[in-house]
Amino acid sequence: MKVSADKVREQIASLLTAWGMDADIVKTTAEVMVETDLAGVDSHGVSMLMDYEAFKSRGKLNVKARPKVVKETPVTGMVDAGAGLGHPAAVMGMELAIRKARAMGVGVVTVFNSHHFGAAGYYAALASRAGLVGMVTSCTRSIAVVPTRAAVPVLGTNPIAFAAPTKRNAPFLLDMATSSVANNKIKVYELNGKTLPAGWVLDGKGQPVRDPKAAMQVIYDKQGGGGQTPLGGTAEMSSHKGYGLAMMGHILGGTLSGGSFSPIRNRTQKSSDPDRLGHFFLAIDPKVFRPEGAFEDDLDAAIDVLHAAPPVDPALPVLVPGDPERATRAARLKEGIPLPETLLKKIREICERSGVPFLL
Question: What percentage of the chain has pLDDT greater than the value 90?
Answer without folding.
Answer: 84
